[in-house]
Amino acid sequence: MTGTDDVLLVHGGTPLEGEIRVRGAKNLVPKAMVAALLGSGPSRLRNVPDIRDVRVVRGLLQLHGVTVRPGEEPGELVLDPTHVESANVADIDAHAGSSRIPILFCGPLLHRLGHAFIPGLGGCDIGGRPIDFHFDVLRQFGATIEKRADGQYLEAPQRLRGTKIRLPYPSVGSTEQVLLTAVLAEGVTELSNAAVEPEIEDLICVLQKMGAIISMDTDRTIRITGVDRLDGYTHRALPDRLEAASWASAALATEGNIYVRGAQQRSMMTFLNTYRKVGGAFEIDDEGIRFWHPGGSLNAIALETDVHPGFQTDWQQPLVVALTQAAGLSIVHETVYESRLGFTSALNQMGAHIQLYRECLGGSDCRFGQRNFLHSAVVSGPTKLQGADLVIPDLRGGFSYLIAALAAQGTSRVHGIDLINRGYENFMEKLVELGAKVELPGSALV
Ligand SMILES: CC(=O)N[C@H]1[C@@H](OP(=O)(O)OP(=O)(O)OC[C@H]2O[C@@H](n3ccc(=O)[nH]c3=O)[C@H](O)[C@@H]2O)O[C@H](CO)[C@@H](O)[C@@H]1O
Ligand SMILES: C=C(OP(=O)(O)O)C(=O)O
């Protein structure tokens, strides 16, 4: 989608009602695909969504000699790494800036080839997003790293060795880096202050199926005993709890009612508690979760994002749109990314009252206090929203703008909607199924 195709006209004021389905998690599937590089035979990954981050990793794997083909059931990929050693990666520069996943190729490529080249990373512009933890842990395993103009070149002069690591912060990507590297390293790795997000547990399940030995303690410590060889796996990816929560927030903000097939209670417990406090209703069954606005007014809340099992930062932006409709003052303290509240200025143009602060409001002090980052917000509601011209800043901010435009009176022009394809499968079709009045300029109402 390019040029004018990248604009969506949204005619607001219609509650979203109906059923949609979420498939495998954006934050697990690409990593499980990378794990296939560690196997000595083919892997089968099921419940794979058709999103851009999956396509990017598929392209990168193919460049590295992995054969990727559809499996027997819809949404199944078969990944065969048999020919990685003979791949020609001359075109790798074309993948620069595509997503955050290339950094996770380091361990598997070092084990397989003894060297790796990692192009510049992409991902959402919601903070500095350094990768210093990744390189620190890779050095501890015995890798050498050379910064080049177009990326990073790594070498493992000998087999990587297990090590004792303490992360300065429970970073998701760095924990995955350690897992994907330690499983084939010599000896034991002990990782403390690890991230324990459900997607990480699912990646551990994938690696265990391949033959890895990994144990998780209750205190954020993960122990990995390296093995000499891993096989392929067969795995069904856990559903996308972040997409599910986005649709739940859309139901609340538009006074709608959405059944999210595939949504799972276990990975969403913290979100569900918050949703209930705000005044949203939900009902859980074996196949999914129904979310709706029960009528009456919504409640203002104090909310702090955090690492799991706290309130996931990727849930924050969509829920803030619903909070503009709650009665009173809500406080939102973003403690994971220093710049994830910038999207609120467009909501203010639409009529919301959201004030940003540099202080840590509403709870504990975080890494960003006293450092000049506008990382706390006070949302004063309820406010009527009006349609506006909106430019999508990042993935979740983009979905939040769609929610705001759908909840608003009048028409919004939302620019840059292609970014949403990075993490939301068929979002346009889903919007239409839910009764949204959306239109690509120049075409009929879709
Ligand atoms: C593809 C993917 O899975 N993305 C998710 C992943 O991102 P990602 O893995 O990039 O996020 P991290 O958990 O690593 O980042 C958390 C914090 O740690 C900091 N940090 C991280 C690494 C590092 O080397 N140095 C450093 O300082 C970051 O700047 C950030 O402030 O987890 C985030 C937190 O749940 C989610 O919002 C993203 O959707
Ligand atoms: C921040 C996100 O993703 P990424 O890490 O891929 O940029 C997200 O999914 O909201």
UniProtKB/TrEMBL annotation:
Known catalytic reactions: phosphoenolpyruvate + UDP-N-acetyl-alpha-D-glucosamine = UDP-N-acetyl-3-O-(1-carboxyvinyl)-alpha-D-glucosamine + phosphate
Enzyme class: transferase
Residue ranges of domain Enolpyruvate transferase in the record: 11-431
UniProt-annotated location(s): Cytoplasm
InterPro entries referenced in this protein's UniProt entry, alphabetically: Enolpyruvate_Tfrase_dom, Enolpyruvate_Tfrase_sf, MurA_subfamily, RNA3'P_cycl/enolpyr_Trfase_a/b, UDP_GlcNAc_COvinyl_MurA
Major site of localization recorded for this protein: cytoplasm
Pathway(s) of this molecule: Cell wall biogenesis; peptidoglycan biosynthesis
E.C. number(s) listed in UniProt: 2.5.1.7
Transmembrane annotation, as ranges: none
One MF term in the entry's GO annotations: UDP-N-acetylglucosamine 1-carboxyvinyltransferase activity
Catalytic residues as annotated in Swiss-Prot or TrEMBL: 124
Keyword terms of this UniProt record: Cell cycle, Cell division, Cell shape, Cell wall biogenesis/degradation, Cytoplasm, Peptidoglycan synthesis, Pyruvate, Transferase
Record-linked Pfam families: EPSP_synthase
Chain sites annotated for binding UDP-N-acetyl-alpha-D-glucosamine: 100, 314, 336
Family, per entry: Belongs to the EPSP synthase family. MurA subfamily.
HAMAP family according to UniProt: MurA (MF_00111)
Protein name as it appears in the record: UDP-N-acetylglucosamine 1-carboxyvinyltransferase
Organism: Streptomyces lateritius
Species lineage: Bacteria, Bacillati, Actinomycetota, Actinomycetes, Kitasatosporales
Encoding gene, per UniProt annotation: murA
